[in-house]
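Hey,
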Amino acid sequence: MSEAEGLVGGIPDSEVLKRAVAFKQKLRDGGAVVGAWLSFNDPAVAEIMGQTGFDFLLIDTEHGPWDLQSLQVTLMALNGSNTVPIARVPWNDHVRIKQMLDLGIEGIMAPMVRTPAEAKGLVDACRYPPQGRRGFGPRRASNYYQNIGAYERRANDAVFVMPQIEDVATVEQLDDYLEVPGIDAVAIGPNDMSGTAGLFRQSGHPTIKGAIDTIIEKASARDIPVCLGINTPAASQPAWVSRGVRVLLVTSDLELIAAGGRSALQATRETLDLP
């Protein structure tokens, strides 16, 4: 039997991409999803985070030390979890996106997607023909070809696509940008956006705040969920969600380790009256 026809065995077809489908349906129904950044490529960290109950983990391969082998092992650690693995790829690169999707990544966030044409290129890289131009070879993603038919049927609708707007000039093309078919959500990158405006790391500047407000307003008018691209504290989350920021990042593995260590150390010093 050929790879295209599928192999004997596998999981029930109903389980293929099940968590990704449920994730996108939650957003389509107007709900919010809660996730965390995954920075460390230790599979034990992914396993712990995956069993915590987050809707998704955003694996930061743009700024972290990830290669395809470490990514594959991390995805294995998320087996049995309902947490959707989404990768922020290093760049809006068709080849890298294909490789990650074939490993079993269920969502792609691409940085610095500046124009409608670049947004369309991202969607095309994540969709099989005729909706896109993704090459066919989903080895691990299809359970090593054991569920190839189910994966082929569901992948285009199930894979989550989220371009990241990080150039202030994109706001001028925003209407056309948001009309690109196949965008499931848009992310913002306040820090890099501020750099493109000559206001590096001044994300509170009126120019940057105005751009963010415009993105949220126009995306929400089209029922496109927004992700701020940075962690939001619990106190501000209701206000953001009410405006359309429904892809929430709330913490990271790095942040949890550092904060947990500081908290334990401080508690001990206070208890024992140590300097």
